[in-house]
Design brief:
Structural class: mainly alpha
Number of helices: 3
Order of helices and strands: HHH
Radius of gyration: 24 Å
Length: about 90
């Protein structure tokens, strides 16, 4: 039991490390992206940034809950196939 518990804790720590590293890399890439963006747009940077965020909000509306759907699909595809039990159906008048 202790060995299994240690394995679960190691997996949790590894997952947390990956999540932290990916978050840091994502923020770093965002900073690398935004500096040339503002230089390129010059005096129109605020308007261009507003248009960018407008498009991003539209994309968020289109992809609402997409990640949870994908994870649910993956978890269900890993389950063994279950055959439905044969029960008599109830017919209501």
């Amino acid at each position: 039991m202790s060995n299994e518990n240690n394995h679960q804790q190691a997996q949790m720590l590894r997952g947390t490390a990956w999540l932290t590293a990916s978050n840091f890399i994502s923020r770093l890439l965002g900073a690398i992206y935004i500096i040339p963006w503002y230089i390129w747009m010059g005096t129109y940077a605020a308007k261009a940034n507003g248009l960018f965020h407008y498009g991003l909000q539209y994309l968020r509306l289109v992809l609402v809950d997409f990640d949870s759907r994908v994870s649910r699909w993956q978890s269900l595809s890993r389950l063994p196939s279950i055959t439905p039990c044969k029960k008599k159906s109830i017919v209501l008048p």
